[in-house]
Structure prediction request, 373 residues.
Amino acid sequence: MTFLVNGQNLANRYFSTALFSADNNLYSCGYNNYGQLGLNTTTNYSSTVQVGNTSVWSTIACGASHTLSIQSNGTLWAWGLNSYGQLGTSNQTNYSSPVQIGTVNTWVAISSQSQFSMAIRINGTLWAWGLNTYGQLGTNNTLNYSTPTQVGSNNYWTSVACGYYHTAAIQSPGTLWAWGLNSYGQLGTSNQTNYSSPVQIGIISNWTSVACGTAHTAAIQSNGTLWSWGNNSYGQLGTSNQTNYSSPVQVGLLSTWTNIAVAGYFTAAIQFPGTLWLWGNNSYGQLGTSNQTNYSSPVQLGTSTDWIRFACGYQHMTAIQNNSTLWTWGNNSYGQLAQANQTNIFSPAQVGSLNKWNNVSCGQFFTMTLQIT
Prediction:
C-alpha cells in the first residue's frame, strides 16, 4: 500500500518509533488569533518563529485557524481554534501550543482546510473529527465529533484532502472517493447532491493524488493527466472558461503533471521536471504573475524548473525549490509571507537566506514550515 504525506510517497517504509527518515524543526508566521501558530501566545508574527524547542516534527497540515502535525514517532498533535472539536482533544478548548491527540502512534497522513480534520493510520484506516454540517466527515451523519472517528470500516485509504466543506480521498489501488457539500459539483458525482459517506467518483482506478479548494477539486491520474471539477467562478478549474463542472474534466492535454495544491479559489500544480503553474483567483497576487489578473488556464511561474514542494493558503502561496530555499507571495495582511512586513507581494520572494526548508503548509492567513535540523 502506498501512503502519500504532503505529496511524498511512503511506499516500502515500515512503521517503527521513527516512521520518517528525518526530524525537522517547526516554524510558523502570520495570523494567530486562536493560537494556530503554536507559540503559546495569540500574537501575530511576520517572520518565522520556532514552535517549541523540539526537532521531531515530520509533517504538517493547516486548517483555516488550526494546525495538525505528526511527530517522527507517529504521534499526532494539534493546536489553534477548537470550536467544533477540530483539534480532536475531546473538548472545544482552544490551545495555543501543541497538544497530543490520544495516545496512538501510528498516524501517517493528515489533512485539514476548514474546521474539520482527517487523518490516516499505518493500517490504512481513515479517521475524521470536527465540523460535520454537510457530512464532510464521511461518518454517514451530520454530527460533529471532538475525537477521531473512523470513516467506515475500509483499510485501503492511501491519501486524503479536505476542502472547505467537502473531502476527497484515494483508496488502493487508485479509486477516488468524495463526500460532503456538493453545491457546485465539487464531489465529482455528476450531480449537486450532498453525501455524508464516501461515494466513488467514476470507475477509474488510476488516481494518484487529489487536492480540494473551497468548492472545487483537482486530481492527477497515474498517466500524468490533470483533472478538475466544481466551482469555476474565477477559472480555478483551469479549463479556459468559468463554467462549473460536476464531474472530472481534463485540464489541457499534457500528461506531465506530478503534484497539485488547492485552496480558496485558485490552483497550483507542478509539471515535470519541476515547473510551477497556477490559475484562478489572483486578487492578491497569489498566482505570482506580477499582476492581479485572474487566469482560467495554467500560467507558468517564471522559468525555474526546480520547484519541489508547495502549499496554497486562502490568498497566498508558499513553495520550496530543490536547493531547499523557501519562497512566498500573495496576501500578506497578517505577515503570513514571513517577509518581516505586511506588504502584499505579487511575485515570489525568498524567505531569508537559509536553504534548509523541507516542507510547508498554509492556513487561511498563516503559514507553517518545516526546517531540516
About this structure: The two ends are 29 Å apart (CA to CA).
